[in-house]
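A brief tutorial aside. Many learners find it easier to grasp structure tokens once they have seen a single protein encoded end to end. The record that follows does exactly this for Kringle domain-containing protein. Read the sequence first, then the structure, and try to relate runs of similar tokens to stretches of the chain.
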Amino acid sequence: AGQRCEAKSFVYDRRHESTRGHHCEFAPQNWWRISEACKDLRKNRPSPISIPLGVCKTKSKNLKNITLGRGWSRERDFIVKNNGHS
């Protein structure tokens, strides 16, 4: 059977594309379990949240890199982080 991609509850915001520096990324836990191809669909791309990285780190002990499908993530000029909470 073909792979079914699940839409998530956040949106991709084009305005953030040129943002420089570090950002927090908040995504539901189940987002991390979907396939790379599904993560890379526009409807499933998380939006960076403009919170200083230092604030992210103090709010979360389990900060981790976000890994997206190759095409989209390689075009970003900022580092997207996630603390595992929506």
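Self-check: The CA atoms of residues 58 and 74 lie 27 Å apart. If you spotted this yourself, you are ready for the next section.
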